Amino acid sequence: MSEIEIKCTECGTQTKEARDITFSTTVDGREIVITGLTGSRCPVCKEEYLDADSSEKSLEIANKFRRPAIVFKRKVTVSGGRRVIGIPEEIDRALGKKENVDLWLEGDKIVAEVY
Ligand SMILES: [Zn+2]
Question: What is the 24 CA–ligand 1 centroid distance (Å)?
């Protein structure tokens, strides 16, 4: 386990393997906490170091919470007694032939996963 047993950059102590690291970061003003990551921890000052896999994983998760650079604004209209949101042309083009959508709410956000 030489890859993960590194010396602490804070105090120089040999770190120990850890499989219960919690990583928190702020993305676009929202706090994200990721638990159960692997890496190593300093037994003296408790500084934690993520291994390569966990670094990549947490970056991937954090990126999912990043707000997109382009936001299309649409009004919710009514069609056949139902409320309808039009899909912007640019997004529709990117969807290609995908035609199934799972929808759920995240706070006041409607999240659509297409497949
Ligand atoms: Zn230390």
Answer: 19
| pLDDT tens-digit readout, 46-95 | 999 999 999 999 988 888 888 777 788 889 999 999 999 988 888 889 88
How do strand 48-50 and strand 77-79 relate by DSSP bridges?
unpaired
Cα 89 from Cα 15, distance rounded (Å)? 52
| Cα 72 to ligand 1 centre (Å) | 47
Residue 20 Cα to ligand 1 midpoint, Å, equals 17
One-letter amino acid identity for 36?
G
Q: Where are the domains of the chain?
A: 16-64, 77-114
Ligand 1 centroid distance, CA of 15 (Å): 7
Which H helix or E strand runs over 49? strand 48-50
